[in-house]
Design a protein that fits this description.
By secondary structure, the chain is α/β, with parallel strands linked by helices. The chain has one domain: TIM Barrel (Alpha-Beta Barrel). It contains 12 helices and 8 strands. It has an 8-stranded parallel beta barrel with strand order 1-2-3-4-5-6-7-8, surrounded by 5 helices. The radius of gyration is 17 Å and the shape is globular.
Amino acid sequence: MEKRIPLIAANWKMHKTVGESVAFIEELQREVGAVTDREVVIAPPFTALAAVRRVMTAPGYRLASQNCHQEAKGAFTGEVSGGMLKDVGCEYVIVGHSERRHVFGETNETIRLKVAAAFACGLVPILCVGEVLAERESNRTFKVVDEQVQSAVLGLTPQQARELVIAYEPVWAIGTGKTATPDQAQEVHAFIRERYAALCDKTVANLTRILYGGSVKPDNVDSLMAQPDVDGLLVGGASLEVGSFKRIIRFVSP
């Protein structure tokens, strides 16, 4: 079976100016160098995308946007289309992050449209799914995640289903300092892969990368990445400092 290449993604959210972003990327590339056995994806704020792309020269580094609009163009003040993101050098786009769902009110249907729009522009979506604390405590994790995945993949071609990256981010572990245990992460990742096999096919599911996101830190990265169905990480706060993010990129494989 083809090996799944680990993907380590940094989501900077609303942090870093253009100058800070450029300085970070330059230092990270000096410290880490080229990466050949994993991908490093950086999602800076919109204002820094073009500048980051210009200095992102080391092999193995990719540019992502934190969001996109579902329409290609139009009277959508303040929004950015997939075509615009592709134009500045993005290869990936994060879609359906928990903050987009729970702070900005994006629905499963909106996220499905964004996934389709991203593929239409030649971008690879990183689809975020996950449950809030009340849903986990009421044993609804699998139901919520299943609904989110099913909705997002509706209408995808087999090739698109293969390229899609899924990120499981338990909402209760984002920015709270709480982290799902490696066993908890593995349990949900294995469920997602099983359901993806039923929705698409087993070959596609075995090739699809499923990331974990939720208070990832240097001291838990190795145990998370040791899980058989954890193929990478979506990193928030720990990606804002070169030292901590460097250690996460350099996770130790089992």
